[in-house]
Amino acid sequence: MLEYFEPLKNDGVRQVNRARVMRFIQDKEGIDRTELASLICVSNAAITNIVNELITADIVQETISSGDSSARGRKRIGLQINRSGGFVLGITAIATNVSIVLANICGEVVDEIDVDPTHIQNPENTLKQIYEKASTVLRKHAVPMERLFGVGFSVAGYLNSDKQRLERASYLGWPNFNLNAKLQNMFGQNVTVENVNRCIALAETRFGAMADTKDMLLIRSALGLGGAVLNEGRLLHGSDNLGADLGHVLAVPDGELCSCGKRGCLNTVAAGWAVIHKLGAASSSYDTINKYRTQNEQLRQLLGPEKAHDEKVIFALREAGSTLATHVLPIIQFMNPEAICLTGPVGRHRAYAEAFRDRLLQFDIKCSVVLGSETEIITPSMASVYLALSDMVYSPNFNFNQIVQTSVEARVL
Predict the structure, then answer these.
(1) Has this prediction a pTM greater than 0.85?
(2) Mutual orientation of helices 179-187 and 123-140 as an angle, nearest 10°?
(3) Measured between alpha carbons, how far is 314 from 174 in angstroms, rounded to an integer?
(4) Looking at per-residue confidence, does 89 or 163 come out higher?
(5) Residue of 196, 192, 193, 104 lying closest to 141 (CA atoms)
(6) In 249-389, where does DSSP find H-type helix?
(7) Are the CB atoms for 259 and 285 separated by under 8 Å?
């Protein structure tokens, strides 16, 4: 089982052990205290103290043990996460969709709503509407703030190297600003922000079809391309936190003009835009959010069932999928990953996905190729939930004191 986290120097031993206890209980319902002590390599007394405080805080409950029921001696008592013990919000902001998911700390969806920002290119306005909708959802389900353990925010953009300021979000049209601080002012300190493609990669390897995969290349193909790389279970960020920005890798020198202002990016020959351009539906790339949405709607129609047998559409999709495989092949050979995951609205199309895989097989690629057309891949909305769970709940970052402090104040009152 892979760790969600790598303990930092300033993480206390108790914080780390508490995070590991919670994760083992979540992964194996009915696990008992003795087994926990053995897995985490601490004393039974230490585990008992941690478990008792989690039970007192209503985060963990006792249940039937999952151990050997035929064993002699004192009957062991199992443990499970209390589904109503805490909650997280998963918020997604991409050019085609802004959504909010409320989930419990077992990752089960309680509610999900879409936000329709009046001016999505205005981050101040959009974040205000997100906060208002999120507050409505929390009130609807009577979730007190001390039981909101984390907010995961996935964005179609990249933060700077210290993960505070939004450095680039061309699909949204957002300027540079301190996104992390803005969200913390709204929701408190328990906020984590990440690029949407990285969120999906993390969620897949921690909770999804590729659980426990340590080395992976994820490609999300939509109107543009996005990517994420995991090495030894860790995300590749790069020195400026722009690692795996696949769509803007140079593919064709002096090729078509890309939305980034450069020519010949991989987006122009292997993404959804390349398909609609090939079919004559787009003469130039998107340079505004409105143009992006217009072209994305054109793409959506081409991917729909009414075009399922259109030979021109299928040919354009197969050509783009094969081109993508050709250009990422050196990356795959260099990385030697366990798996490649292709997802996204275009990546899930059978013609595109099969052409991508067929091209890789021509080069005798040995790693697993997981296609969104055949396997259910975690959505951006749920990836934001899992980001909150892995970074803010099943992690040394878990703010256990917010529960303890509230309990003390309640007793004083």
Answers:
(1) yes
(2) 30
(3) 34
(4) 89
(5) 104
(6) 267-270, 272-278, 289-303, 311-335, 344-347, 350-362, 380-388
(7) yes
